[in-house]
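FAQ

Q: What does a record look like?
A: Structure on top, sequence underneath. For example:
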């Protein structure tokens, strides 16, 4: 009986132990002077599924996250607008070693769970499994100051789309490859990432360096 209880305890505590194995990642300050002109980035914007599996540089990852949903003003407002500035979006970062939550005000990545969750984001599309980073855009519609769940979900989808567009334009401006996707194993991701009932995965963007032909 005692051994059985120890085994059960190990099973239930394993996810917590795994998350603790990951350490916070302090991000570089964003380089706000890089990239092409906006019109050039728009001209270059394309969905690219063929990407190198080598890791992004620390600066590229930092700049990518700031462009997606970073803090760009002293009052805490972001590079992407949200309905009524209710900031319903959470940005999860899937790396080979584990998943992190982007903490924009403190410019760091907070560990969520160790282990590779990219297969859950891939939903059968193989190229996603080898992308060096996959950004998962989640809307927590409970943050909207209203009592209309349907409208809140609509606004959350809108806000998530804007964050994804920021990712696409940044990648086009600096020569990274990405594609916005809605395919993913939502139920399993919600379980693994400990998402609440009001947190809805909206989109994901695999990001990497383009394959050199």
């Amino acid at each position: 009986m005692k051994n059985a209880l120890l085994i059960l305890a190990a099973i239930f505590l394993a996810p917590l132990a795994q998350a603790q194995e990951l350490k916070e990642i302090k991000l570089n300050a964003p380089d706000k002077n890089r990239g092409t002109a906006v019109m050039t980035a728009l001209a270059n914007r394309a969905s690219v599924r063929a990407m190198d599996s080598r890791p992004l540089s620390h600066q590229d990852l930092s700049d990518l996250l700031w462009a997606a949903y970073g803090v760009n003003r002293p009052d805490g407002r972001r590079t992407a607008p949200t309905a009524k500035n209710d900031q319903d979006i959470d940005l999860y970062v899937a790396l080979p070693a584990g998943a992190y939550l982007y903490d924009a005000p403190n410019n760091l990545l907070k560990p969520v769970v160790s282990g590779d969750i990219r297969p859950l984001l891939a939903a059968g599309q193989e190229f996603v499994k080898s992308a060096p980073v996959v950004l998962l855009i989640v809307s927590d519609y409970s943050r909207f100051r209203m009592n209309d769940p349907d409208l809140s979900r609509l606004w959350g989808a809108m806000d998530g789309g804007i964050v994804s567009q920021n990712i696409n334009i940044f990648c086009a401006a600096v020569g990274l490859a990405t594609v916005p996707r809605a395919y993913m194993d939502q139920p399993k991701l919600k379980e693994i990432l400990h998402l609440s009932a009001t947190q809805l995965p909206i989109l994901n963007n695999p990001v990497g360096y383009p394959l050199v032909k």
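Q: Is there anything notable about this one?
A: The two ends are 61 Å apart (CA to CA).
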